[in-house]
Every structure is written in C-alpha cells, then in structure tokens.
Fold these 4 entries.
Entry 1:
Amino acid sequence: MSVGPSPVLQARNLSAGYRRVPCVWDVDLDVRPGEIVVLLGPNGAGKTTTLLTLSGALPALGGEIRWRGEPTRGALHHRVRGGLGVVPEERSVISRLSVRDNLRIGPGPVERALELFPELERLLRRRAGLLSGGEQQMLSTARALAAEPAVLLADELSLGLAPQIVTRLMRALREAADRGAGVLLVEQHARQALAVADRAFVLRRGRVVWSGSAAEARRDLRRIEGAYLGGEHAA
C-alpha cells in the first residue's frame, strides 16, 4: 500500500476564537502537497475563524498547528518564511494603486501573476478600486499564487461572483495543486468547491461533523447539505 506525501500544514485538537472565547473546538485537519482540501459549513460555523488561526492572524486557544511536522509559534513564524499564502475573504487589494502596483507589492513576480491570470494584463494601468468584484478576486488570487506558496489558504473566493468567474478561480486553484501546492479552501457553496477538491471537511457550530474524500462528498451531497449545511447564523 502506497503512502501519500506528508502533510505540510496540520491542525491537531485546534480550538480558536476571539478575546479568549472559543467558537471552534477540537479541529483536526491537514493539507498535503498537490491536493485541495475544502472546508465547508453554513454561515457562522467557524470556517473563517479556523482559516485565520491557521494563517497566524489569530492565536490558537488550544491544540497545535504544525508546519512540515514541527509545531509553530508566535505569528506563525512570519507565515512560515513565505511558504504560506493567503487570499482573505475581503479581497485584499489596495484601491488607490494600479493593478500593476498591486502585483508589484506582492511576494511573487508580476510576470508570474500574469502567466497565471493573463486576463489582468489589459488592466495593468487601471486603479484596483475601479475593477469589478471578479477582477479584484483574480488580482488577489494571482498575487498570492505568483509566489508559488507551499500552501495557499483561500477564504470564500466565490462570494458574490458570477459563475464563470468562480469557475476560472477554481481552475486556477486546481492548477496550483497540480503543480504541487496544497490548498485549503473555505467555501459555503459546496458544489463548485467539491468539483475541484480532493478531500472535504464539514464544520458545524465550531466542530468537524463530517470528513472524507471529495468524491464521497459529491456522491452524498444531498444528505450532507440536508444534515449539516442548513442556515446557521452564529458569530
């Protein structure tokens, strides 16, 4: 029996929250090279809190985070010396700067970003604040992927975007994984995410309630949606 690659990023018994009040408990998950792991759940399930903690933006309240098998400390060792990329939910572009300047301040070369998203080339001189939501999300994703991170954390890429833009972004994540990156994708919209994912976790009320292969999740999606992905409106 073959053994897959070792995890790059791991959470073990992770608890997380705000102002020392946990809203996520005992989460175990890992991200391996060359795969997309999707973290699903309704609003308020704790998905973004989990991602922020894994990125180092929030301190863990319990358990541990490991990078290549070693425990991390502090602000996630400055995002583990550049090996961890993040695309946050709020589309982190600088509105007053041009697309070109937004790419220049990223961790990777502008040329690489344009190879990944050639759609941005015609927009290089435009102010980022004048872009559509989909164009801003492509810019944010291109900037993160241009650095060729070992692991990319992506939060709700599809939020408020047209289906064709979502398809384009998901394809870019799949291509990054096929080049060897590990990707952790937080999503509410299960079908689009599972179409490109390898494994899935479902978070509800701060706890993992289901995990398995993306193929299993696709086959059983109606039951998973009915049991776990209904409307939930917590913090």
Entry 2:
Amino acid sequence: MKRLILFVLLLTMVASNAIAGGLPKLRVGYIPEPAHGLYFVANEKGYFKEEGVDVELFQFGSAAEGLAALKAEKLDVGTFGTTAPILFISKGSEFTFIGGMMIGGQAIITRPERLAELSGKNLKVYKGKKIGLVKLSTGDVIFKGALKKAGIDYKKDITFVELGTVASVVEAVKKGAVDAGLVYPPHFSLAEKNYGLKVAHYIEDFYPDYTCCRIVAHTKQVNADPETYRKFLAALIRAYRFYKTNPAETVKIYAKALKIDEDIIRNETYVKKVADSNPDPLRKGILDFWQHIRDAGYIAQDYPLDKHINTTIYKQALDGVIRKSPKDKIYKQMLTFYKRNN
C-alpha cells in the first residue's frame, strides 16, 4: 500500500513538472518593497501556473541595476519605479509599460520636534526648508510635481539636498542635516521604529493615485507574444483581489518573501494604506510623471513616450478575469479604475 501511495505521489510530481515545463517562462525582476507583493501572492497561491505562465522571480537592490539586467535580456519583465524606465526609454531602450505594481507610497519624514511646524494640509509649510532626497526617485519627481500643482516655485523656495541612497536620507534627517526627507516603504516605518523619526506627510495627501513602480518588458517580446503577458497580468489581477480580501494571509506571504516584520507590513499595507499594490498600467499617470521630469529639467528633449505604453494587454487580461467572475466587486472596481486612468 505504501509503495502504491509513493508511486501515485511520484506520478503527480512528474505530471506537475511536465505541465510547468511546457509553460512559457518569464524571468521577472523586482525590488524588495511590500508594495511589490502581488508577485509573491500570485506565486504562493499558484495563480501564475493556473493562468498558464511559469514565472521565476529575481530580486534587485536598485532600479538601475534591474533595468540594466532587463536591457541585457537577462530578464523578461521588470518592476523598477517609473523614473528609471522613462530614462532608459528616452535614451533609446525598447521597453514597453504593460502594467503596474505600486500606486503611491512615498513619505516625508522629519524629527519629532519639527513635526508641528510641518503639519497641516498645505505644502507651503515646506517653503524655506531643506529637503533630503534621492535624485530621480519617485518621491523626488512626484513631490516636485505636487509643489508645482500647488503653485510653489520649488526651484526658488525650497533647497533640495541630493543624497545617494534612501538610507543616507534617513541618516541626514536623524542628524538634523536636513529639515525633512523623502523616502519610500518600508524605510519610513523603519525610521519610525529604529530612530524615533516621524512621518510629516504622505505625498498621497497632496497628489492622489500617482504612479510609482510600473511593469515594463521588452517591446519586441510584448509584440511577438502578447498572450504570455496577458496570462501574467491575469495572475496579478487575481493576486490583487486576494490582497484586498485576505489581509492576514497576505501579510504573512509578504513577510515571508521580504524578511520584513509582519507589523511593519500590516501597518503600511492595511492600517495606514500608504500604497496600493495595483497592477493597472496607469497610462495617464505615466504621462503626467513624464511631464514632471521635464519640468524639473532632468530631460531636455521631448519624446513620444505614449507609444511605449501598452494598455491593451492589461485590458484583455482584466476582461478575461471578469468573464469568469462577472459579479465580483473587486474586478468591477478595477475596470472602473482602468477606464478613469487610461
């Protein structure tokens, strides 16, 4: 009997491997942030394979490092901010935006004794201040975009101190070298926990639904095999539903994958809701972001960026998921969001 059970288990394993072996494969790069967690959910819950794609995940320490791997064709897909892909594309890289992974998420931290003077809902509290940031980070570009929308001449009224890493920004705030600093998750939670620093504002307070990490792929591969990318995005759409409806298990999946404290992930993801792990392409947000980069003087020449944004594959993936679950409220909300933002 034991031999029979072992034989059946062996056949099951062989069959599973054979099925996986026959699936199209995608090598996917990401940065270790909680808001990139849809990859871990889709992987853990088996959505990638159920949709018909074999995904292998690769972690990178920076957007530049990840996009260099994508350009060298060591990756098929990458999720590395918005700024870095735009810069690569504007310099000739044939990448295409096909989806998203993170909306929002940037925070402005300060020392507790400075919190009162930076409180309120008006960006004018930052006039005359010295702000630490990582140049061309999402926080850099979006904060400047928010300042411009508020009618503030940030080139004249605010001093920006450019630092090499987000850890350097936290250190500068801690030492008082700057009045405040722009950071992304989980660094503001770690700064609060480890150094007693405080979040003065989330940029979402001033600039709702702004684009952060986007999903990019090789243009030639997207055009040659859109079906594989549709399956990939369908799995992420299903993962988004799971993340919205199963917070307890999602926190455990994120914590296991990222080796980050569950309380930090829970606080950022479900309590403060500082970012939304949404796979929507957010075409309008990408184009707004492009304009903010140009306004800041980081790129002088104009560029037809819109031709590098493919929303069709995501829409097909979403339509396919909705056909299978036509009454699902989350998927209906995703469709409404898509129509508004693309």
Entry 3:
Amino acid sequence: MGALEFSEPRILQPQDDVSGFCCGTEFIDQWLATHGLTAKEHGTAVVYGTFISPSDGKQELAGFCSLSSYAVARSRAKGWLARNTPASIPVILLGMLGVDARYQGCGLGRDLLLDAAKRSKAIAEQLGAKALVVDPYDESARSFYERYGFRDLGDTGSMFAKL
C-alpha cells in the first residue's frame, strides 16, 4: 500500500457516511453514530472530519473531532487561566477526537488536534476564549494530550492548552 492521503478536515454533512467508522473506543464510536451528523444542526458542536478515498473511490471517514463553546468555573482553575476572568471562564471544548482503527499510527490524531487548535485560536481571536479544553477518557489519551502541551485543569480530570 502506498502513502495514505487524507483530506483536509471539513465540517461533516448530513449525507456523509459515518457507519463504517470504528476507533476502538465504544463511547466515541457511539457518539459519532448518534450525534456526529446532527450536532451542528442542534447547536451543540461542530464536527470536523477527514476522509480517505480507497481504490473504489468512495470516501471513508478516517478521523474526526468536535469543537464547541464551553465554560470552566474560575473556582476550578488556577494560575494564568483564572487570572482576570469572570466566574465562568470562556473556553473551547475539544469534545471528541477519534481516528478509525485502520488509520491509527499514521499521525492523523496529531493532525486533527493541531487543526482543532488552529481553528480554536481563530475563533478565540474573534469571540474570546482563553483555552482549549479536553476530557481525556483514559491514561493513553492523557499522555497524547500531554505531548502537545496540555496541562491538568485543577482536580477536574480535564486538561487545557492556552490559545
């Protein structure tokens, strides 16, 4: 097999087929199947997907992430994040990030995270948000986010990176 070529992330559309997606983490797969195509319509998140076109030409979802507005209670934050902020600190939530098991280990998770951070920074410059927040689902995910500069958000279990 040659080098894999993934599309640039784009907003998922209702006609996109996500039925074959499986990242190996059931609640992420289930969230995508249940909410991924309707989250934008419902105003809860915007889901970005990257695709690959196998030899049959049909696009397959290779990975996705979701972004939404969020707030962190100042009482739960420390240091820089809590300084000069209202009681509810505006942040952006990277709510879901998943890479299909067939494409794990290709750097796609990193690429999706960097794209989400870039989009979040652009949003923060127009709207106002102090950080990108994630809720890692296990220690492996926590280690992944730590490699990209995310730090613990107090005792919440969440992590954040400055925008």
Entry 4:
Amino acid sequence: MKKALIFLSVLASGMAYAQETDGVYVDAQLLPGSDVGSVLKLEAGLTVPLINTAKEKLTLGGKVQQTAFDFVDKDVPFETDQIENFNSFGIKFTYQRNLSDTWALNLMGETQIASNFDENEIKTDDIFFNGLLTFDRYNDENNSMWTFGAAYDIRYGLYYPIPVLAYTKRMDEAWAYKLGVPDSRVKYSVGGNHEFEGFATLTGFTGNINDDIDIYKQEYTGTLRQTNVLLGLGYTLRFWDRFKATLEGGYTAYNQMQVRDYDNELIYDFEMPNSFYLNVGLKYTFDSKARVNRVY
C-alpha cells in the first residue's frame, strides 16, 4: 500500500518541472506536531532566463532552504541535537526546446549541498546531484499533452530515480487537470486571477549527517530522508500582473522519515504518523518568450 501511494503520487512531478515559471519566490511548509515531532521548511529562490526565445529557453536558478525538526524526545531513543537543523543550497540549470509543433524537450541539472553542518565544513557526502529528462507530446485537437521521462531529485527523500509520466488536459477556460507521477492536480480558474486546486503530490527531504551520530549506542554516518504523499486543497491569487500568492492545506497520506547509511541500508525508522500539512508562498514571475504549449 505504501509503495502504491508513492507511485501514484510520483505520476506528475515532471509536469511541475516542465511548466515552472521563472521568478523570485519564498515558501514556507509546516507539518505540525505529532507523536514523534514536527517539521518546518523555509525556502527562497530565484530563476533567471539566460536564453529566452520562441524556440528555446535556458534558465539559471538558485535556492536556499532551512529545515527544522522539533522532535518529541521521549519518543526518539537517542539524542537528536545533531539532526534538528539542516541547510541546503542549490544551483540549477533548466533547458526547454521546441522540437516541432507537437514535441518539446525538457532538461534539468542541479548541484545541491544539503547538510546539518555538524562539523561546520562541507564534505563530499554533503553534495548531491539532481537531474531530469522529459519529452512533451502536445495534441492540438483535444488541447491535451503527454509528458514522459525520468527524474532523480533528493527533494523526494528517495535514493533512486523515478519515472515521469503524466497526462494533462484543458477542458475549458475554467477547468484543467493532470494525472501522473509524482503530482496529480485538478484546477478551477475564476476570472484569470483566482485558482482553486485539489492535489496529490510527492515531496520530502534529504540531508547529509556530516558527523557520526550515536544511535542505539553505536556510531553511524549517513543521511536523514523524509518522504511524504500529500493530499490537499490550494488557492492561488494573482495580483499586480506578476505576483502570485499561494495557500495550501491538507493531510499526509504517507509519511516516512529514516536515517540511512551511505549504502542506503536502514539505520533507524522514526515511524512518523500522518499529520496535517500547511504551505504558504509568494512569487514574482518573469516573462517567457518560449512558445511552449501549456494546457494546465
């Protein structure tokens, strides 16, 4: 059942990459207190187009993220001071190119440092690499699009690549939906400035523990990984031409957090219960000249 939930959620993540808009953003995500602990993520980023033509677009992006864990000590059988705060810094290139009137290519490559910096230095294991390759197939007759490919990204908390497969359709001016891996959504738009969404999406966290951690009176090295399947509702308000504010709320249908060694062998499972979810964000968007077919 858990594997099925992850797979269903993975069905649409490539769409998020393919249809990202350039701009400046801030974002805050909260998974409030549970029997084990709560998680707060704060993120800010910038994506700037370097090449921006009707046929292709190349963007450079950067982001910083702080993730704070507030553990309930009585439910975790070891000292958690080392894994309560993680910081992440990333630089990303994204490339989109129209291959024809119906086909498009999407590429993403990212270098990311994610660590608890317990030793106040950057180690080799603190550095991660993310990548994505997808193709879009647009159908003008029914205003729909297929996307397929593969992605590897530590933001899902997984140590293996995932398939990207999604079907997106615009039904009319107000309604659109996309079904896929790892993000499925249905959207209702009102007046061009208001959007209401229902979604099932995969998210998570990966951070390196760059010093030995004592678990069950043994010293270990490895990573802290969290994977969530989120079900929820969202509202987006567009204002002042280029700004948009987003509020989302929901519940985790799947919530896993583990310490794993560098061979991806399990060291400790926190057995996180499902919990409520809240996300707020603000973004300023840039113009795009690329003639990429968008149906969502």
